[in-house]
Amino acid sequence: MITLELDDETADVLNALSEQQHLSPAQLVKAALREYLEDYQDAKRADAAYQRYLDSGKASHSLDDVVKSFGLDS
Questions:
Q1: How far apart are CA 12 and CA 15, in angstroms?
Q2: Which of the ends of the chain has fewer CB neighbours closer than 10 A, N or C?
Q3: Three-class secondary structure of residue 46 per DSSP
Q4: Chain center to CA of 12
Q5: pLDDT, position 39
């Protein structure tokens, strides 16, 4: 379990939003944190993929080439 201290302004915004969304403040914080962490992981994967692209000498393949290589063009 994690305890989080919020300033009054942030707590007020959280409480108002949780009422609008019909969720408890804890549920809202969990959902927001989960989304942030997923986005962060996606960004890290994108950075790694871009670095592999740069390391390859910027080699890329067209969609047509990929479709043909997997035999999906029929």
A1: 5
A2: N
A3: helix
A4: 26
A5: 98
